[in-house]
Amino acid sequence: MKVSYTETRAKFAALWDRVCEERETLIVQRRGAEDIAILPAAELASLEETAHLVRSPANAKRLLSALNASFEGEGESVEIKQLRDEVGGG
User: Fold this and answer.
1) Is the pTM of this model over 0.90?
2) Per-residue DSSP letters for 14-36?
3) pLDDT surpassing 80 at residue 89
4) Which DSSP symbol is given to 56?
């Protein structure tokens, strides 16, 4: 979704709510300035974590391999409680 700076100022609360509810990035355009993006903080944190995880080519390859295996129905289903017990998270 793209809106002007003027529209953003006029409808900020409604746009904020829409960004959060729809998990949609808002691009704000201002004449003579670079566009900015507004997105939920949790989405930004997720993107930053993903960037960190794929920074290493070896880790990126391992993650993509696991993702592909998941899409192909490989692997096993594990309950969260079992995972917590295994890693000591109680």
Assistant:
1) no
2) HHHHHHHHHT--EEEE-TTS--E
3) no
4) S
Of the candidates 75, 71, 11, the residue with the CA atom closest to the CA atom of residue 38: 11
82: helix, strand or coil: helix
Single-letter residue type at 47: L
CB 38 within 8 A of CB 25: yes
Name the token pair of 70. 């998941």
12: left (phi over 0), alpha (psi -120 to 50) or beta: alpha
- Nearest-angstrom CA–CA distance, 31 and 8: 13
How high is the pLDDT of residue 43? 95
For 32-74, write each residue's pLDDT tens digit. 999 999 999 999 999 999 999 999 999 999 999 999 998 998 8
Token couple for 33: 């300035």
Tokens in use for 32?
Answer: 């003579």
